[in-house]
Specification:
Number of strands: 16
CATH architecture of the largest domain: Alpha-Beta Barrel
Number of helices: 23
Radius of gyration: 25 Å
Shape: globular
Structural class: alpha/beta
Helix content: 40-55%
CATH superfamily of the largest domain: Phosphoenolpyruvate-binding domains
Bound molecules: phosphoenolpyruvate, magnesium ion
Distance between the termini: 40 Å
CATH class of the largest domain: Alpha Beta
Largest sheet: 8 strands, mixed
CATH topology of the largest domain: TIM Barrel
Strand order of the largest sheet: 1-8-7-3-4-5-6-2
Strand content: 5-15%
Length: about 575
């Protein structure tokens, strides 16, 4: 029997099912005689939760799960948020009610606000809020928490939803995979699973109707399927896949500390995409030649107030110092579209992806933008920084952004704060920018092509739309032509061009992108060694020929066929 869900972390596992059980808690309102006692219990529960989270952060750091540590740190921030604390205490005093009811009501109010936002990313963040709330409540009631780090035999976890703090405790040695009934592609548990390389599937609706605790199942995280009651031949073919994946990972290690070059000696730099300084160990482990995209908006999300200039400065400094002398391209905040900040004033829009997103929002809220630019420029003295603006559609937008950078520089000079002059570049992710790249190239120091958005805006199809996936066509000649125009403009003006969208790690797209003239590819750190292995077998002359042919193809399939043809020729 086969059950299907959403594949969120690739890979395969065979193992026995472990159900994660839930405790039933009484949240009803009770009138209390001594509200101050409830507040005292609240403070004790917070202290206990704080030390648990701190211990978890330390142990996840030791297990080198930096992303998990960062998620737990954001839980700590929610836990200690003065607004939340004040609201709970106020409710207890105001209504002379019990602690559990007060915490639940306050948390529910926040959750309701988040849910009303109609924002997928934020809705998934609600899980984090629920997670911290439950932890405090269970501590207040002295209920023992399920500790996944104590599991010491191989299992596949099956749960209604896996809480991020639970995911953070997973020990890869024993937790072979996880499957949930709820959850989404961008939920924190998913991010953790991907970084840890644990195969995972979410959204299997009929999961609990069929799966039995303790039975052996096969998890195919690549296809998003679980198999129940399978036969021996299926089991042995999956075992073969598991062994193969393991040995592939091992042999890729021989590409560490090697340059990325084609057979005829053309060098390509492979950079990493990161979302926080906690991702740096993955960048180092996979030997990235720089950071090509630091999506800074992740620093601003999952919290109830904006990170201060100093807080941002410390993160940027850490990344620059760790990577030095390698280059670090930091993208200014890309909020709007499907990302929303509860503490920033963002108008409701009919078409958020076509609205005040990224640089457009920063122009609208210049003071907010300047805080980030100040933190970036202050950090510039600690490494090799480049600043990149997202969603640039016109040259004037870039020049306006550059003017704001100049204003911030003047403010820093007035205060005697040192900074370095840094390269300023743009993401090319809107067709208008790609089509006028020749003019833009006069003004900017570098280009980085964001293929995820470039494809969505070229095809006018929401990149997250469940049934419009067929219009996500990276190999369409329309996309190839736009990328080619950008590369030509960059070459004519002698500026570097990078690709930092998902296409950069696609093993079929890499030969094409190099053939089109891309200098750097920036990708998920886990993909770097595989890309390095692939590139060494190609001759750059053949890749240019491939790109030229692709420019004249009729459709995506024809381009894919051309790539396959070249790969087949190399195999001969
Ligand atoms: C892109 O659009 O390709 C890109 C890299 O940016 P993001 O995925 O963050 O929008
Ligand atoms: Mg983008």
């Amino acid at each position: 029997m086969l059950l299907k869900g959403i594949p969120v972390s690739p890979g395969y596992a065979i193992g026995s099912v472990l159900f994660l059980e839930e405790t039933i808690i009484d949240y009803s309102k009770k009138i209390v005689d001594h509200p101050e006692e409830e507040i005292k219990r609240y403070h004790q529960a917070i202290d206990k939760t704080k030390s648990q989270l701190e211990a978890l952060i330390q142990s996840t750091k030791k297990l080198t799960h930096p992303e998990s540590a960062s998620i737990l740190s954001s839980h700590l921030a929610v836990l200690l948020d003065p607004e939340v604390k004040k609201a709970v205490e106020h409710k207890i005093v105001e209504e002379s009610c019990n602690l559990i009811y007060a915490i639940k009501r306050v948390a529910d109010d926040y959750i309701k606000q988040f849910n009303e936002i109609q924002d997928l990313y934020l809705r998934e963040r609600v899980t984090d809020l629920i997670d911290v709330t439950e932890r405090v409540i269970k501590n207040a009631l002295n209920i023992a928490l399920v500790d996944l780090s104590l599991i010491n035999h191989e299992v596949i976890l099956v749960a209604k939803d896996l809480k991020p703090s639970q995911a953070a405790q997973m020990n890869k040695k024993y937790i072979k995979g996880f499957v949930t009934q709820q959850g989404g592609k961008t939920s924190h548990s998913t991010i953790i699973a991907k970084l840890m390389g644990i195969p995972a599937i979410v959204g299997i609706k009929n999961l609990f109707e069929h799966v039995i605790n303790g039975e052996e199942i096969i998890l195919d995280g690549t296809k998003g399927e679980i198999h129940l009651n399978f036969d021996d031949s299926m089991k042995s073919s999956y075992q073969h896949l598991i062994d193969q994946t393991k040995s592939e990972k091992q042999s890729l290690k021989s590409f560490i500390k090697k340059k990325t070059v084609t057979k005829d000696g053309k060098e390509i730099e492979l950079h990493a995409n990161i979302g926080s300084n906690h991702d740096l160990p993955y960048v180092m482990d996979n030997d990235a030649e720089g950071i090509g995209l630091f999506r800074t908006e992740l620093l601003f999300m999952d919290r109830l107030s904006m990170p201060s200039e100093d807080e941002q400065f410390e993160v940027y400094k850490d990344v620059l110092e760790t990577m030095y002398p390698k280059p670090v391209t930091i993208r200014t905040i890309d909020i709007g579209g499907d990302k929303y900040l509860p503490y920033l004033h963002q108008e409701a829009e009919a078409n958020p992806f076509l609205g005040k997103r990224a640089i457009r929002l920063c122009f609208d809220q210049v003071d907010f933008f300047k805080v980030q630019l100040r933190a970036l420029l202050r950090a510039s003295v600690h490494g090799n920084l480049k600043i990149m603006f997202p969603m640039i559609a016109t040259k004037d937008e870039f020049l306006d952004a550059k003017d704001i950078v100049s204003e911030v520089q003047e403010e820093l000079i007035e205060k005697n704060i040192p900074y370095h002059i840094v390269d300023l570049g743009v993401m090319i992710e809107i067709p208008a920018a790609a089509l006028t790249a020749d003019d833009l190239a006069n003004a900017v120091d570098f280009f980085s092509i964001g293929t995820n958005d470039l494809i969505q805006y070229t095809f006018a199809a929401d990149r997250n739309h469940e049934s419009l996936g067929y219009l996500y066509q990276p190999f369409s000649p329309s996309i190839i032509k736009l990328i080619s125009m950008v590369c030509e403009a960059a070459k004519d003006h002698k500026i570097p061009v990078s690709v930092c969208g998902e296409m950069a790690s696609d093993l079929n797209a890499i030969p094409l992108l190099i053939g089109l003239g891309v200098d750097h590819l920036s990708m998920n750190p886990e993909s770097i060694l595989k890309a390095r292995q692939l590139i060494k077998d190609f001759d750059s002359f053949d890749l240019s020929k491939l790109a030229k042919k692709a420019l004249h193809a009729h459709d995506q399939q024809e381009v894919l066929d051309l790539v396959q043809l070249l790969k087949d020729e190399y195999k001969k």
